[in-house]
Amino acid sequence: MQATVRLITVLAAAAASLALAGAAQAQGHGGPRGPEVHGRGPGPGLVLDQRFHHDHWYPPRGYVVPALPGGAIAITFAGGSWYFHGGVWFRALGGRFTVVLPPVGIVVPVLPPSFVTLWIGGSPYYYANGVYYLAAPGQGYTVVAPPPDADAAKPAPIQGTAPATAAKPPPEPILYPRNGQSAEQTEADRQACNRWATTQPRAVADAEVFQRAVAACMDGRGYTVR
């Protein structure tokens, strides 16, 4: 009973915050906490993904932010650019970024930090934030359409345990511009290095190799990485 009362109190506070933020925030545009807020904890504008007992919070589709969260991975697909961070996908929109559903077929080098493993038709699928992934050997993980009979699938007993080819990402590095680069230039260089890192052997299948490649690229562009 006490846990229920605490949950109602938290939800009421979140609703009050949304009402005070105005109509724009209620539609998911520019809330006080950006899409980098995900995981086990409520926040204004976030929604809880309870499917398959995933039980993580994410910003809704259409949520707009002025800048990408640090460490977002840039991915080129079908002539366009998408950005991935913590299980959330973005696209550029008039100088800002909006949360979107990724296209089927796009490949990301690493899985989200938290996910549910589903065995369907003898194959492991990985689920997070309304998106299903399949392993793409030598590339990473491909976004796929919801598999048949997904609703009847049973999640594996342990969530968020990446297969041997995809270790959990190490702590995000800190970048220091040695040559006085602006924040805008730093972000542009980081995105370019993310793209370059995906071309390196094993980087698409190993998060640690991926981040080492990014660090080497940023060092070459005049940044100290720690």
Summarize the main sheet.
5 strands, antiparallel
Mean pLDDT: 73
Please tell me how large the radius of gyration is.
Answer: 19 Å
Helix/sheet category: alpha+beta
Which range does the strand content fall in? 25-35%
Number of strands: 14
Give the proportion of residues in helices: 10-25%
Order of strands, widest sheet? 3-7-6-5-4
Give the total of domains: 3
Signal peptide: 1-26
Biased composition (Low complexity): 153-167
Protein name: DUF6515 family protein
Region (Disordered): 153-186
Architecture blueprint of SSEs:
Layout: H1 2-21, H2 23-26, E1 47-49, E2 56-58, E3 64-65, E4 73-77, E5 80-85, E6 88-93, E7 96-100, E8 107-108, E9 116-120, E10 123-128, E11 131-136, E12 140-144, E13 175-177, H3 183-197, H4 207-220, E14 223-225
Antiparallel strand pairs: 1-2, 3-7, 4-5, 5-6, 6-7, 8-12, 9-10, 10-11, 11-12, 13-14
Helix pairs in contact: 3-4
InterPro entries: DUF6515
Keywords: Signal
Pfam families: DUF6515 (PF20125)
Please name the defining characteristics of this protein.
alpha+beta, five-stranded antiparallel beta sheet, 27% strand, disordered N terminus, 226 residues, 23% helix, 3 domains
Q: How do you describe this structure in short?
A:
This protein is of the alpha+beta class. The chain has four helices and 14 strands. α3 (183-197) crosses α4.
Write structural notes for this entry:
Residues 153-167 have a biased composition (Low complexity). It comes from Pseudaquabacterium inlustre. Residues 1-26 form the signal peptide. Pfam families: DUF6515 (PF20125). The protein is α+β, with helices and mostly antiparallel strands and 226 residues long. It folds into 3 domains: 29-100, no CATH class; 107-152, no CATH class; 175-225, no CATH class. It is built from 4 helices and 14 strands. The strands form 4 sheets. Strands 3-7-6-5-4 form a 5-stranded antiparallel beta sheet. A hairpin with a 2-residue loop joins strand 9 (116-120) and strand 10. The relative contact order is 0.11.
